[in-house]
Amino acid sequence: MPTRPPHAARAAVPTPSGLTAALALAAILWLALPAVGRAQEPPKKIGPFVADVRGSFVKFGQSDGLAAEHGLNGTDLPSHGLGLDLGGHFYFFKWHAITFGAGAEVLLSRGHQGATTTGPAVTTTFDSYAPQISFNFGSGDGWSYLSGGIGKGSLTIQSATAPPEQAESVKVINYGGGARWFMKKRLAFTFDVRFYDLQQQPAANGRPGNPHVSFLVMSAGISIK
């Protein structure tokens, strides 16, 4: 009978954060595959316009570097939060299997952690707004997409023991993908997986600074066209 080699190499196990990112990227790449038409009739065109309303789950994490800028420990920060994701997109050109789109997206989010024996109550607020371009695959009955944009956003870390912190805008890059499935002629279920990359923000005018940070946001809701 065949036996297992005594010194077989063990596969590396991703860290929890690395595993989350790997799964999210795998989902985005899978969504980018062109949809295969199942009906005999010609596929409907994507668009020409769609509006999205989604609830969001934001993975803030508990960065020691971010917490230290505000006189806190990493475990004092809320690890996640909830938010609202709003967007609108026009679809203006098709080339082979790709339909090109342009639009804008707004994310409003907030996370809170109550006081513990080692730290005060802390509220994290992250807002972002940006134009986006998108590459869409499928038909008017349902399509997947990859999209990204560069805009502005603000991040505040407010502890119960510190003066109110003023929000100031920094550059934010977002990129990700998702899909829409139309259950009715103008109504679809939609979900989106997106990374937000925030530029470093120096301390100024008595406001603490923020290091370069990235957040993962997963959203689901409805689309209307």
Explain the overall architecture.
There is one protein chain. The chain is mainly beta. It has one domain: Porin (Beta Barrel), CATH 2.40.160.20. It is 10% helix and 52% strand. The protein is built from two helices and eight strands; from the N terminus they run αβαβββββββ. The chain has helices at 16-31, 64-69, and strands spanning 49-59, 80-95, 98-113, 122-139, 142-159, 170-182, 187-198, 213-224. An eight-stranded antiparallel barrel has the order 1-2-3-4-5-6-7-8. β6 (170-182) and β7 form a beta hairpin. The chain is elongated, with a radius of gyration of 21 Å. The N and C termini lie far apart (62 Å). 29% of the residues are buried.
Shape: elongated
CATH architecture: Beta Barrel
Number of domains: 1
Total DSSP helices? 2
Which CATH first-tier class would you pick? Mainly Beta
Please identify the structural class as seen in this structure.
mainly beta
Describe the largest sheet: 8 strands, antiparallel, barrel
Oligomer: single chain
What's the order of the H and E elements?
HEHEEEEEEE
Task: Compute the number of strand runs.
Answer: 8
**What percentage of residues falls in helices of 4 or more residues?**
under 10%
- What fold name goes in the CATH topology slot? Porin
* Beta-strand residue fraction: over 45%
* Spatial gap, N to C terminus: 62 Å
On the 0 to 100 scale, the average pLDDT is: 86
- Radius of gyration, taken over Cα atoms and rounded to an integer in Å: 21 Å
**What low-confidence regions span 5 or more consecutive residues with pLDDT below 50?**
1-16, 34-39
Major sheet: arrangement of strands: 1-2-3-4-5-6-7-8
